[in-house]
Amino acid sequence: MSIFKRFIPLWLSGVATGNTGLSVMDVLTSNRRRVEPTLPPPTGPGKMRIHLFSGDFASKDTAQHYCFYTENNRPEDLTRELPDAYIDTAHVEVQFNAARTRLEEFLLPADVARYMKQMDGANTLVIIAEPAFGGLAYALNDTTRLHYLGPLVVDV
């Protein structure tokens, strides 16, 4: 038995030889959440879908830099980390140390409490409004800096 066969886990050697029907990439990416970009159902008149994210940043400038800063004709960090979504940052809002106040503007107190609990002490709320996606299909998930709290339909 070669030294390599002794140290390669059995499941990986099966993948490498094609015995499992899985590719090495299937195994390496099996823990990643895979969501196909889709168009959500229409919200109806007077309504808009928004998407909430929470994260911790050292300052308001750091949070805004992550969401809005671009250089050398490259997309913003937020856009690069959400590759299954075209994002027009004109429809992105960053609230640093003001999440509760902003959520109270359009949610009932019980919903505010629920989202604040989901934020788990994070100091930044990022809101992406549906028009940011330009009518294209999209898929959202956590990034390295933000936790995706989910979609929400609100009155406009």
Structure characterization notes:
The protein has 156 residues and is an alpha+beta fold. The chain folds into two domains: 1-32, no CATH class; 47-155, no CATH class. Helices cover 31% and strands 19% of the residues. It has seven helices and four strands. It has helices at residues 3-7, 10-17, 24-28, 60-68, 77-81, 99-104, 109-119; strands at 47-55, 92-96, 124-129, 146-155. It has a four-stranded antiparallel sheet with strand order 2-3-1-4, sandwiched between helices. The longest helix has 11 residues, at 109-119. The protein is globular. The model is unreliable at 1-8, 10-20 and 25-31 (pLDDT under 50).
Itemize the secondary structure elements and their pairings.
Blueprint: H1 3-7, H2 10-17, H3 24-28, E1 47-55, H4 60-68, H5 77-81, E2 92-96, H6 99-104, H7 109-119, E3 124-129, E4 146-155
Antiparallel strand pairs: 1-3, 1-4, 2-3
Task: Output the keywords.
156 residues; alpha+beta; four-stranded antiparallel β-sheet; 4 strands
In what range is the share of β-strand residues?
A: 15-25%
**SSE string, helix = H, strand = E?**
HHHEHHEHHEE
Tell me the strand order in the biggest sheet.
2-3-1-4
Computed structural class: alpha+beta
> Could you say which overall geometry the principal axes of the C-alpha atoms support?
globular
